[in-house]
């Protein structure tokens, strides 16, 4: 049996995943990070992207995250995600409709604050669409 470590994924609403993993790849702000058992302690902010989890004993899980933080210490990885959705739950047609609305919001925005919020939503939805492919 391969070595494992604890992995928890937490969103503002709830604990989404708490398992033993063989490897987890997280979308770190400075690039993807592969975490294996015994990884040195690290804290990183996350960018929009997909967490790839190789579960203990086999099986994989892919979760889209919209920012957050990852901390590896004492052979446990904890991801605090601003938003997290299993990739299998991403529906292209719904994302495309939201993306169209967000682009309209950007075009209609009159203030920097509204433009920035609309652009952030476009960025998130574009990344979700890419993950759903």
* Secondary structural class: alpha+beta
Number of helices: 2
Number of distinct beta strands: 7
Which stretches of 5+ consecutive residues score pLDDT under 50?
A: none
Q: SSE string, helix = H, strand = E? A: EEEEEEEHH
Description of the molecule:
This protein is α+β, with helices and mostly antiparallel strands and 133 residues long. Helix content is 29%, strand content 47%. The protein has two helices and seven strands, in the order βββββββαα. The protein has helices spanning 92-108, 112-132, and strands at 5-10, 15-28, 31-35, 42-55, 60-73, 76-81, 84-86. It has a five-stranded mixed beta barrel with strand order 1-2-4-5-6. α1 (92-108) runs antiparallel to α2 (112-132). The longest helix is centred in the C-terminal third of the chain and has 21 residues, at 112-132. It is elongated.
List keywords for this structure.
133 residues; single chain; alpha+beta; 2 helices; 29% helix; elongated
What's this model, at a glance?
The chain is α+β, with helices and mostly antiparallel strands. 29% of the residues lie in helices and 47% in strands.
Write the layout of secondary structure elements.
Elements lengths: L4 E6 L4 E14 L2 E5 L6 E14 L4 E14 L2 E6 L2 E3 L5 H17 L3 H21 L1
Parallel strand pairs: 1-6
Antiparallel strand pairs: 1-2, 2-3, 2-4, 4-5, 5-6, 5-7
Helix pairs in contact: 1-2
